[in-house]
Amino acid sequence: MWIQRFNSLKHIRKLNTVKCLSTKAQDVENIGPIVFQKLGGEDKGIAVYGLNSPKERNALGFDLIQAMREVNQIIREDTKISVVILHSLVRGIFCAGANLKERFKMNDDEVATFVRGLRNTFIEIEDLPMPTIAAIEGVAVGGGLELALACDIRVAADSAKLGLVETGRGLIPGAGGTQRLPRVIHLNIAKELIFTSRIISGNEAKELGLVNHVVPQNGNNNAAYEKSLEIAREIILNAPLALRCAKQAINEGVQLSITDGYEVEQKYYEKNIPTKDRQEGMLSFIQKRKPQYQGH
Fold first, then answer.
1. 16 close to 50: Cβ distance less than 8 angstroms
2. Residue of 85, 71, 76 lying closest to 34 (CA atoms)
3. CB-CB contact of 215 with 207 (8 Å)
4. pLDDT for position 26
5. Of the listed 25, 67, 98, 242, which one is catalytic?
6. Which of 96, 151, 222, 289 is most exposed by smallest CB count within 10 Å?
7. pLDDT at residue 2, rounded to an integer
């Protein structure tokens, strides 16, 4: 029963009116426990991926993971999206990790299958073609931090709590945490955090290089989102296809020797050469005007 539920991607999708963090939202859509919105106006090109499962504290159970798979597919196929902000609509919580109530009901084989599927869901986020930003306002532990690690850029409020706590629960980080964390911060520090199950603050995470930015939390409890929006607004000024090529070049090349990485860079540079956006970038510079990128 558990595996059948996990493998099902059937959702009843509803277009609803919801309270959004941006007044420029368009195409607001509830997909299970996720609120997905594409911003408009000057923020066109920004998509907001909001976790919204307050009763479960955004714990990673069947419903949330299946909704994430559907949203990942929507984003991947939308060439008009230049950057994605992943955040939480639950106050004080980014993601509380695994849904242990569901996990406890599974047998050993079902747990192994579930965790593999969870890891693959996070790989889908990691492999989204456009830049992604995780806005972490509150608790991001276990799978919650692993989810944030799957994003390209991380922004935390100073009140955030981050940690890979699995060894304290008789587990190991199984959704990519043992692999991504040592690639983000120093190997010895990553080992210490995993071995101790230590939870650190947003400020400590910034000192370790785990997050790009830390900001003081505000009264609306959305300071990390607001900072992420600032970064996203800088990103959307640039050519969408160039952003995608740059991300792919980085992600592929960093796994290789630098010599092989140069060849990866050349591959994606050549892929970008025939685009109209490249021509527009050069022409707008010569004409001393703002470029009008079309994503082709």
1. no
2. 71
3. no
4. 63
5. 98
6. 289
7. 44
98 is catalytic: yes
Banded pLDDT at 294 (limits 50, 70, 90): confident
pLDDT tens, residue by residue, 254-265: 999 999 999 999
Q: Tell me, yes or no, if 205 is annotated catalytic.
A: no
Active-site residue flag, 192: no
DSSP H or E segment with residue 49:
strand 46-51
Q: Which two tokens stand for residue 106?
A: 């599974």
pTM, whole model, 2 decimals? 0.89
Q: Taking phi first (over 0 means left), then psi (-120 to 50 degrees means alpha), and beta for anything else, what does residue 136 get?
A: beta
The catalytic position among 143, 163, 176, 253 is 143
Report whether pLDDT(167) > 60: yes
> Per-residue DSSP letters for 109-175?
HHHHHHHHHHHHHHHHHHT-SS-EEEEE-SEEETHHHHHHHTSSEEEEETT-EEE--GGGGT---TT
CA nearest neighbour of 205 among 122, 143, 140: 140
What is the predicted pLDDT for the residue at 25? Answer: 55
The tokens describing 206, both together, are 């910034």
Catalytic one of 146, 176, 224, 249: 146
Query: Would you call 166 a catalytic residue per the annotation?
Result: yes
